[in-house]
Amino acid sequence: MARAVAAGIFQINTAKDTPDHRQKLHNTRQRILQLVKDTSAKLKALSESDHDSRVNPSKKIEDAKLARDFQNTLQEFQKVQQLAAERESGYAPSGPPPSATTSGSDEQVASRVDQEYQPFLMDQRRQEVVLLDNEVAFNEAMIDERDQGIREVEDQIGQANEIFRDLAVLVHEQGVVIDDIQSNIENSAAATKQAKVQLVKASKSTKSRSSWCWWLLAIFVVAVIIFLLVLIL
User: Fold this and answer.
1) In contact, 79 and 160? CB cutoff 8 Å
2) Contacts of 213 (CB under 8 A, 6+ apart)
3) Residue 53 gets which letter from DSSP?
4) Residue 160 neighbours by CB distance under 10 Å
5) What's the mean pLDDT in 133-145?
6) What's the rounded Cα separation, in Å, for the pair 26 and 187?
């Protein structure tokens, strides 16, 4: 959607720049901004729920990755908004056509024109004045439209920047959570490894003590047998 907006922005101040095009572009930017607001609110809700210790660590990691992806997308939208502001501010309406002045040669020609053509000349000049007034009014309207478009884009940029700052804090907090999870996983793995080592040592120690017990028992039995043989003999 951001690419479509960018393509539309590049048509500003071209032959395809019409009031309908401007309105469609405005509506599209508004929809994107609303989606940004809704998505940001949902990510905040997810982040708050992830603070619960009962939440699966894998879900916390997935939510953090989602927030980072959304942050990258929002950066692209901010670039598009900045481009829109530059294109809007770069508009310069064409100046009014030069006023119809009467040169000396025109006066000479007019003096030679029969009186019956004078009403037509006056009517033509009145039409030129009307066209000039219309041109000035059109340029003023276009300047007002440009200023309004700039104000709208600046307002959208401000809202997007505010959301981006909140999102940056959110991503940072989730990054801390992920670091804690990874630290706990590493500590658990280290503890598990150490426990295995201790079990192996304990097993070897138990086997060693058991072996010595059997040897002592065998020696004791042999000693008893020898003692009995001595008594009998």
Assistant:
1) no
2) none
3) T
4) 23
5) 66
6) 53
How far is Cα of residue 7 from the mean position of the Cα atoms in its chain? 19
Q: What's the pTM value of the predicted model, to 2 decimals?
A: 0.47
Q: Which residue has the tokens 């997935």?
A: 62
Q: Which amino acid is at 15?
A: A
Q: Please identify which residue in the block is written with the tokens 């939208």.
A: 77
Buried b (16+ CB within 10 A) or exposed e, 210-225: eeeeeeeeeeeeeeee
Interatomic CA distance for residues 101 and 43, integer angstroms = 66
| φ, ψ of residue 99 in degrees (nearest 5) | -65, 150
154 CB burial (10 A radius; 0-12, 13-18, 19+): middle
Mean predicted confidence (pLDDT) in 39-52: 80
Q: Measured in whole angstroms, how far is the alpha carbon of residue 28 from the centre of its chain?
A: 16
Torsion 226-229-231-233 (CA) sign:
negative
Residues in the chain: 233
Report the distance separating Cα 67 and Cα 40, nearest Å. Answer: 9
Tell me whether residue 109 is exposed, middle or buried, using C-beta atoms within 10 angstroms of its C-beta: 0 to 12, 13 to 18, 19 or more: exposed
Rounded to an integer, what distance in angstroms lies between the CA atom of residue 120 and that of residue 126?
Answer: 10
Give, for 81, the enclosing helix (H) or strand (E).
helix 57-89
Domain around 83: 2-232
Task: Give the pLDDT band of residue 66 (cuts 50, 70, 90).
Answer: confident
Positive or negative, the CA dihedral 84, 88, 91, 96 is positive
| Number of domains comprising the chain | 1
